[in-house]
Design a protein that fits this description.
Strand content: 15-25%
Distance between the termini: 58 Å
Mean pLDDT: 96
Strand order of the largest sheet: 11-12-13-14-21-18-17-16
Number of strands: 21
Largest sheet: 8 strands, antiparallel
Number of helices: 16
Radius of gyration: 26 Å
């Protein structure tokens, strides 16, 4: 769309008012009904509990010492804890002020935190600022959280309206224009404007959404939306036709969530003349969440993802209303108000205004799929014995939030993970720098893939796999891939991994690696990763024990071909906590020029 066409649409736009959020009635009526809504009582109780926790606590200072820690040490957590706690305070008192309009104390606390956030030196995180930045660079920089903050303040201003003092209203408008709109129009282009991952959707989507709420001057709004629409096109280019998010389900929630929040406001303000939801690719992406869950709250957490996910019910219900084949998640998976450690306002608000109580499924139904563009196979199997899950991936080692994990797989059963993906580690400077693959959760040493001549998989697009066969069927799912190209090992001519998931009452996975080598490898180790503590039962069988008596997975192998070794390992998880995992290594006793190594993972 060219600027002239967009300008004509902007000229005809509906005004930005409360009807964008409450199409079924007025603002006061919605929040009054919310207080008596059975479906929102848990959310409201959590909001009130947070208010009680925060009452009497001072607003923590974002000191220079905190600001400078990342530059000095590469650690993000110290500054971000205070930054996100401020956002939690804003969210809590904004929602409490809407739910309890006579609560003058909550409104005063909201006014105070809004003023403090307007005072912040920068809305960006130190980790996202350019190296060796000066004050001028900081003032024009826009990152994920500065754009989100601009969106948040714009929504709070519209939702609270004249209940906020005129000076505060004016200050919010001034700061959002100074920090977000003007730099976006005058200081770019920013790298994320043409990114094909979550940054494009979150940054541009937040700015576009804020402009739809605040900007009254048609020319300025047209210019912002023109750039935003371009970034949304780039964001969608990051998905294949299968709709899979290579960054993982957490970043689907994040990026596609902000894409949806922006697109909803755009559609509403243009009366449907601009509507991203009509695109077939968008409908495919909307189905990704239900495809990712493998067992209760456990997901196929490839890339920088966490193994257990709670869902944003508001986003989920909105997409289910938009697309008939999008499933509403089980109510037990609802993300509590406090679950998001970044305290993002946009999803928290929509968990209140978009959730449709009583429409959730009791549990995920059985399903399996092969996502050809991502080269993932994901399966939920639900016999009488319980729910069981399997996922495996191919692809290449230059994906967004990449891990060197080609041929890696996950196994879960009855709410426990047996073959694990460690997921995302603690984000530091080095985590996204030269040392990225020294972290076990990122390098192939922390994934269930072979180690050849002591070598791990290589990083880069040239380290890849070829899918030879993939199928998802009623009785079994299969993935067969050629993995030799994933390793920087001279002499490796072929490595074919076959994974067959038999969906029986107690399912089993059959894994076979067949290799061909010029000469013979000096060493060959089949590594499997688990949070369970393996137990050697007898030669030929290792137990991955479950919590319940008699539950677990028996790993059977040829004791004449390989020798098992169990090693306890530790890594820092996404929240900086030391987390124990175990490597179950099977060392080939006499590597030869050709070999076949077979393992069975049988649920008990």
């Amino acid at each position: 769309m060219n600027r002239q066409e967009l300008a004509g649409i902007v000229q005809d736009m509906k005004p930005a008012d409360w009807s964008l959020y409450y199409p079924q009635g007025d603002s006061a009526g919605f929040w009054t009904r919310a207080l008596s809504s059975g479906g929102l009582q848990a959310d409201i109780s959590e909001i009130r509990a947070e208010a009680q926790r925060l009452d009497g606590q001072p607003i923590s200072a974002l000191t220079y010492t905190l600001f400078s820690i990342f530059a000095r040490t590469g650690s993000r957590l110290e500054y971000e804890r205070v930054y996100f706690e401020r956002r939690r305070r804003l969210n809590t008192y904004a929602f409490l002020s809407l739910l309890e309009p006579d609560n003058t104390g909550a409104l005063e606390k909201l006014e105070d935190i809004l003023w403090v956030i307007c005072d912040e030196y920068t809305w960006c995180l130190p980790a996202h600022l350019p190296a060796d930045h000066d004050a001028a660079e900081i003032s024009r920089h826009i990152d994920l959280f500065s754009s989100e903050t601009g969106f948040t303040l714009s929504e709070v201003l519209l939702l609270l309206g004249d209940r906020l003092p005129l000076l505060l209203q004016s200050r919010i408008r001034h700061e959002v224009e100074r920090r977000i709109f003007r730099p976006f129009l005058e200081q770019g282009p920013y790298f994320w404007e043409t990114s094909r991952h979550n940054w494009a959707a979150v940054c541009a989507g937040s700015i576009g959404a804020a402009a739809l709420l605040l900007v009254k001057e048609p020319a300025m709004l047209t210019d912002i939306l023109l750039k935003t629409e371009s970034s949304m096109s780039y964001y969608l280019e990051g998905f294949g036709d299968d709709g899979a998010c290579l960054e993982g389900l957490g970043y689907w929630n994040y990026g596609f969530g902000y894409f949806t929040y922006y697109s909803d406001l755009l559609r509403a303000r243009t009366g449907g003349r601009l509507d991203w939801f009509k695109q077939e690719k968008v409908s495919q992406i909307a189905r990704f969440q239900q495809q990712c869950f493998i067992d209760e709250s456990h997901v196929a957490n490839f890339s920088d993802s966490v193994p257990q996910v709670r869902v944003h019910m508001g986003l989920s219900h909105y997409l289910a209303d938009a697309y008939a084949d999008v499933l509403r998640p089980p109510s037990a998976l609802r993300a509590p108000f406090t679950e998001d450690h970044c305290s993002r306002f946009a999803p928290a608000l929509r968990n209140l205004i978009w959730t449709r109580a009583g429409r959730e499924n009791v549990a995920w139904e059985a399903a399996s799929c092969y996502l050809p563009d991502a080269a993932w196979i994901v399966s939920r199997h639900v016999p009488a014995a319980g729910s069981f899950g399997f996922a495996a991936k191919a692809g290449h080692n230059d994906e967004p939030h990449n891990h060197n994990d080609l041929g890696h797989f996950i196994l879960s059963g009855r709410g426990e993970i047996y073959a694990s993906d460690l997921g995302s580690g603690e984000y530091t400077a080095d985590y996204f720098g030269a040392g990225r693959y020294s972290y076990d959760c990122n390098g192939s040493q922390g994934h269930s893939v072979p180690i050849i001549n002591g070598q791990y998989q290589g990083a880069g697009r040239e380290f890849s796999t070829a899918v030879l066969h993939a199928s998802a069927a009623a009785e079994k799912d299969e993935l067969t891939l050629e993995m030799a190209q994933a390793y920087p090992v001279s002499g490796l001519q072929s490595l074919v991994r076959s994974l067959v998931w038999h969906k029986e009452e107690l399912p089993r996975l059959e894994l076979t690696d067949t290799y061909r080598y010029e000469g013979a490898p000096a060493s060959w180790t089949e590594r499997f990763v688990t949070w369970r503590r393996p137990k050697l039962l007898h030669p030929g069988s290792v137990l991955l024990p479950g919590t319940a008596e008699g539950h677990g997975v028996a790993v059977t192998y040829d004791p004449e071909a390989v020798r098992p070794e169990i090693t306890a390992q530790v890594y820092l998880d996404h929240y900086g906590q030391e987390t124990l995992w175990h490597s179950l290594d099977f060392h080939v006793l006499q590597p030869e020029a050709e070999g076949t190594l077979a393992f069975t993972f049988q649920f008990l």
